[in-house]
Amino acid sequence: MHGERLARQIGLIGSEAQRRLSESTVAVVGVGGLGSHIALQLAMLGVGSLILVDEDRVEESDLNRQILYGYNDIGRPKVKAAAERLREVNPSINIRVHAERLTQSNVDNLLRGSDIIMDGLDNWETRLIINEYAVRTRKPFIHGGVDSYYGQILVVLPGRGPCLACLFPKPPPSRTVNIVVQTVALTASIQVSEAFKLITGLGKPALGRLIIVDSLKPTVEHIPVQRNPTCPVCGGLSHEP
Ligand SMILES: [Zn+2]
Fold first, then answer.
1. How far is the CA of 19 from the centre of ligand 1 (A)?
2. What is the number of other CB atoms lying within 10 angstroms of the CB of residue 168?
3. From ligand 1's centre to the CA of 176, what distance in Å?
């Protein structure tokens, strides 16, 4: 039930697209900067079910960009605080939480039932585990990453275009990035737009392109990218021409 909440949205997208949103299950891995913006927008759109994965607790240094949390949440598990906040904007949403780190050995269990997986992470090791899972299970995976004023987005549709490992075969070293909220919001919004298109069938997914945003100019650039036929993750998969 959503009463008047979605009236202005259904007027735009129609009830069939709204039904598809309400029947979809989206996993958000990492509910920090990107992930909290992504989860909030997905809840507001009326996505029926979310799976939230994050082992961290809220810290004061998160509050410049992690839109789901406030001072009262400091020290609490992020997935718990996030689920509470998301239910305030969408009381009928179904939320499954996992307050643990996603690994090679638990990825199948943590992401079971998901239709689409959203990258809200800040480390490449975990991203590449999800990329491998997405290719293996043929699920869409929407990568996002941010650093300073820059963000990047890649839509991975297994069997159609490159996977994350085609472009970034080796995880770059993890480091603490400095960041402003508007870069995070811009990047997360594009990730949500891509998920929205895949779920509803409206528009066309940004396939075969690495999207780079610069929140300071601002610009959104599309760089054509191709799959690597010898990619160890997706190289063996049959691809559409
Ligand atoms: Zn690949």
1. 32
2. 16
3. 27
Q: Residue-wise over 22-53: b if at least 16 C-beta within 10 A, else e?
A: bebbbbbbbbbbbbbbbbbbbbbbbbbbbbbb
Neighbours of ion ligand 1 (CB under 5 A): 163, 165-166, 231, 233-234
Which domains can be identified in the chain, with CATH numbers? 7-224 (3.40.50.720)
Please tell me the distance between residue 225's alpha carbon and the centre of ligand 1 in angstroms: 11
Tell me the pLDDT tens digit for each residue of 35-74: 999 999 999 999 999 999 999 999 999 999 999 999 999 9
Whether the pTM exceeds 0.85: the reply is yes
Report how far ligand 1's centroid is from the alpha carbon of 166 (Å).
4
Residues 6+ apart with CB under 8 A from 37: 67, 184, 185, 188, 189, 192
